[in-house]
Amino acid sequence: MWNVLGGQPPEAHIRDYDLFSWDADTSYEGEDAVIRRANALFADLNARTEVRNQARVHLWFPQKHGLTRPPLRSAREGIEQFLMECTCVGVDARGELYAPFGLAACAPTPATTRPPCTRQRWPTTGSGGRGCGRQRPEEHRRA
Length: 143
Prior knowledge:
Helices cover 27% and strands 11% of the residues. By secondary structure, it is α+β, with helices and mostly antiparallel strands. The strands form two sheets. Strands 1-2 form a two-stranded parallel ribbon. A two-stranded antiparallel ribbon has the order 3-4. Helix 2 (28-41) links the parallel strand 1 and strand 2 (48-53). The longest helix is centred in the first third of the chain and has 14 residues, at 28-41.
């Protein structure tokens, strides 16, 4: 979105694409099968695709990040826990948008109000509203 707003090619500065789902099968093998299918499907994107079953996050998050997370009951619940409100946006397989903090959290703002990593990649646009560059208030995050 920021690339388009800034007049850049849609794929500019994209390190990876995050795809997430929720499946009661929390086995490594189940998630790995989905990852392999997604890698084949999106091979032409010229960017890494990261697929994660939100039902499994609590199993690997402590080892990777040193923090415990409660089991998630849906992909939407996972979106609600993203660190910055401007990233709390998802689209389901039917094309339905889910943005629990609204799209205003993604509104363009001056570069000075955004974190350095986004100022460098998108100098003329970015996310502001209630979120990018700031962590969400503690009451909005679950431990």
